[in-house]
Write a structure and sequence with these properties.
By secondary structure, the chain is an alpha+beta fold. It is built from five helices and six strands. It has two domains: 88 residues, no CATH class; 80 residues, Helix Hairpins, CATH 1.10.287.110.
Length: 213
């Protein structure tokens, strides 16, 4: 005896779709697996995380505005897993940025403290009443302004009589105070090195024009 066709009623959320008595939805004579028919609101925690990321200037991160309508359970599960992964990456990026910002703030504070402590004596070393000191004088007194433990062997004016000797001493000083050589040192030492490098570099330009050109 032929089986009676299933009864159909209008789907409560999708106009024009008839819900079947079977475990499925009938559309134009075809049955489909159960599907989500309502969008899920974004979780509060993920939305707050996205807003925090936006405030911190983290680009390329978007959580929310997702629509699960018409998606199968497997598709929704995959979307939700990707959203969780994205939320984890966003949280990690947010934490790393805050750590970088804090490190930069701490360094700026330490640098300002070093300027207050060493600025005057470094200016006195580099200048004499506003006039730039000669390169020989700076090299011969460099050991007096560097930090304890700096890898610099002091030289005297007697070692700097010949222009070639001055040039060698200058190049050796750059191995100690150039910014590329002090990136791993404390901010206080970096400040001293930067100021010393500035003074030596300016004096070397004058020296080369006068004695090496």
């Amino acid at each position: 005896m032929p089986r009676a066709p299933p009864t159909h009623t209008r789907h409560p959320h999708l106009p024009g779709v008839w819900a079947s008595g079977r475990n499925g939805v009938r559309v134009s004579g075809h049955y489909m697996r159960p599907q989500h028919t309502q969008p899920f609101p974004p979780p509060v925690a993920q939305q707050a995380l996205a807003e925090a990321a936006a405030r911190e200037g983290i680009k390329g991160v978007r959580i929310g505005d997702r629509n699960y309508v018409g998606k199968s359970a497997a598709a929704v599960a995959g979307m939700q897993q990707r959203e969780r992964d994205l939320a984890d990456k966003t949280a990690q990026a947010l934490q790393e940025k805050r750590q970088r910002d804090q490190a930069a703030s701490d360094k700026a504070s330490a640098y300002a403290a070093a300027a207050a402590r060493h600025g005057a004596r470094l200016t006195a070393w580099a200048e004499d009443h506003g006039k730039k000191r000669a390169l020989r004088a700076l090299l011969a007194s460099l050991h007096t302004v560097l930090w304890p433990g700096a890898r610099w062997r002091a030289v005297g004016l007697g070692d700097l009589l010949q222009p070639a000797a001055v040039r060698r001493a200058y190049l050796r000083s750059m191995m100690v105070v150039h910014e590329d050589k002090v990136v791993d040192l404390p901010p206080e030492h970096q400040y001293i090195a930067n100021r010393a490098c500035e003074g030596l570099t300016e004096a070397y330009k004058i020296f080369t024009e006068a004695e090496l050109s």
